[in-house]
Specification:
Length: 251
């Protein structure tokens, strides 16, 4: 008897309500759209996540590798009840956030990846996914972990998240925290910003194409720089090497 193994391997998604797109004016004055993407759009995002796997700085490597795997699993139907939101400015990909529903009461935040720095784009994208969990999916709490010091500052400290160290997070390793409805309501209006409906011209541009990030995080030109300075916090070895390259010193 033949068995259609795909029917066993492929998780059955619940019929989750979609995220209604929103937009916000960020610190640069640009209008940023945050919207849910469809499975078909995932390959257009993966090409911009892949290069970040080689960026050690701020743990982009770890997070990008995991985001890549999670998005691929969503694309190929190997993760249940996952959603992916993107933040775009003029079509350009600026942030990717994802998560999933564990059960009707609880959500699981997976990752937040900012592809344009210094404008709190990641923070706004994260707040938007919390809004999706709370206002649209109706969860009572969202489990969250941080994999980087910036992430810890942005989520655990800015929201003052509650510890849930006894609950293992699906990412493994780092201890879980939770964003409760009470915490979310305190953040509404300050950390959670944005407006609806998105003007037709903005949403049309965002949906037309996911354009490459114009200034994504990149590995350093000198790949050995970090290793050389590891035991040399003053960076003297590196400075001397540069001087040698520039022929300012002979040896
Ligand atoms: C965590 C993250 C999503 C936050 O995004 P964000 O809110 O847009 O913030 P940025 O990363 O741009 O900036 C963080 C800090 O670095 C500073 N910064 C600004 N430009 C920067 C740059 N080009 N490079 C490094 N740091 C920069 C910012 O001023 C900011 O300082 P502040 O906290 O005092 O405001 C983002 O740093 C990121 O994607 N990190 C890698 C993945 C990660 O750790 N994700 C979270 C774990 S799930």
């Amino acid at each position: 008897m033949s068995v259609d193994l795909e029917k066993i391997l492929r998780p059955i998604d619940h019929d989750l309500p979609p995220f209604p797109p929103k937009y916000m004016t960020i610190a640069s004055g640009d209008e940023m759209v945050v919207r849910q993407v469809t499975r078909d759009e995932i390959p257009d995002i993966l090409v911009h996540v892949a290069p970040l796997i080689s960026v050690e700085r701020d743990f982009y490597d770890v997070v990008a590798a995991r985001v890549y795997a999670e998005l691929l699993a969503y694309y190929r139907h190997r993760m249940q009840d996952e959603y992916v939101l993107v933040a775009q400015i003029d079509g350009e990909l600026c942030a990717v956030v994802n998560g999933r529903q564990v059960d009707e009461k609880r959500g699981m935040s997976l990752h937040t990846l900012a592809l344009r720095r210094g404008l709190r784009i990641g923070a706004h994208a994260f707040a938007t996914k919390m809004e999706y969990h709370m206002d649209v999916l109706g969860h009572e709490e969202v489990l969250i972990v941080a994999e980087s010091p910036i992430g810890f500052r942005r989520w655990m400290i800015e929201y003052n998240l509650e510890k849930r160290f006894e609950i293992p997070h699906e990412l493994g390793g780092p201890p879980s925290y939770a964003l409760t409805r009470e915490i979310f309501e305190k953040a509404r209006g300050t950390l959670v910003i944005g407006r609806r409906p998105v003007p037709d011209s903005l949403i049309a541009k965002a949906e037309a194409a996911i354009l490459p990030p114009s200034d994504p995080p990149r590995p350093p030109d000198d790949l050995l720089a970090a290793t050389r300075s590891k035991y040399d916090p003053t960076g003297t070895a590196l400075i001397l090497q540069r001087w040698k390259q520039e022929a300012k010193v002979s040896k």
